[in-house]
Design a protein that fits this description.
The chain has helices at about 5-30, 35-50, 85-95, 95-120, 125-140, 145-150, 160-185, 190-195, 200-215, 215-235, 250-260, 265-290. By secondary structure, the chain is mainly α. The protein is elongated and about 75 Å long.
């Protein structure tokens, strides 16, 4: 066996040991009550978005004008909105756009930023230059204002259009995190040994570089999903998000702003958005702490 193969074999054994260590860290993570509680809350929101009829049998678009802005009644725990529609059903059905936008944009951003950061970090030169310069251009855009301007120019704004625009404008930050991590991984012994024995670059990236460079991006993405929940609500509240007859927490905020004498119109969507956002942030903090190398000592 060559010296390179010996090094490669040693590093593979180290990686297997590291995987076992991560498993034990995951067990420790599951012993944290705040992580378990927030994970259960997030899963509840996912089920609510996917199967709203499990939570209410009321049609959110069935309205009785005689009950406009009424408070809670038996069978209607959240009261009624300005058109006399059951507000509990509206809040339940409003979870789907918020969950879908945040989850798809978060996972999509992780994939796009991960792939581009992987390529930019592993192939310095032309590939890195092109990806980094495009990221610099997008970084120069003024964030929320750019989203508002772009979405305002789109006539029919569906969930998928909103997700696509968030992805196009939001991947550079994650790409930079991934790129910097790949820089520190690409020259480690097990990567050099794999290159020396003729392992193809794509296999090296998939088997050795990405698994050992993804942790910071994973923690950042989990934290960011909570912010995407609020972002969807803000865009819809400002009138550049989802359009009627779509039901979302952001659209309920927009209605509540015009009827300040009916606090329950604001209270319930605000409570759901805050709970989901905080849950994702606590999960992200827990993952970041679990992946902190200091915790592995």
């Amino acid at each position: 066996m060559s010296e390179a193969q010996q090094v490669f074999g040693t590093e593979t054994a180290d990686l297997e040991g590291r995987t076992l260590s991560n498993t034990e860290l995951l067990r420790a993570l599951l012993r944290k009550p705040q992580f378990v509680l927030c994970t259960l809350l997030v899963l509840t929101f996912f089920v609510m978005a996917a199967f709203p009829k499990l939570f209410t049998s009321v049609d959110p678009r069935f309205c009785e004008l005689g009950k406009t802005q009424h408070g809670r009644e038996p069978g209607h725990p959240f009261g009624f909105d300005i058109q006399g529609c059951d507000y509990f059903a509206n809040v339940i059905y409003g979870a789907r756009p918020s969950v879908l936008v945040s989850l798809v944009a978060g996972i999509g951003g992780f994939v796009v930023a991960g792939v581009l950061g992987l390529l930019a970090g592993y192939f310095p030169g032309a590939v890195d230059t092109v990806i980094s310069r495009v990221a610099d251009v997008l970084f120069a855009l003024p964030g929320l204002i750019a989203l508002i301007v772009i979405l305002n120019s789109v006539p029919n704004r569906s969930i998928w259009i909103i997700v696509a625009i968030i992805l196009v404008t939001g991947w550079p930050q994650g790409m930079r995190v991934m790129r910097s991590t790949v820089f520190s991984v690409r020259n480690r012994e097990y990567v050099l040994a794999a290159r020396s024995v003729g392992v193809p670059p794509l296999r090296i990236l998939r088997k050795h570089v990405f698994p050992n460079a993804m942790a910071p991006l994973l923690a950042m993405t989990t934290l960011g999903i909570g912010g995407l929940v609020g972002l969807e609500a803000v865009l819809t509240f400002l009138g550049v998000g989802l359009q009627p007859p779509s039901i979302s927490w952001g659209s309920q905020f927009g209605v509540a702003a015009a009827y300040r004498d009916t606090p329950h119109l604001f209270l319930w969507p605000a409570l759901f958005i805050s709970t989901m956002t905080i849950s994702f942030m606590i999960i992200g903090d827990s993952i970041r702490d679990a992946l902190d190398p200091k915790l592995m000592r």
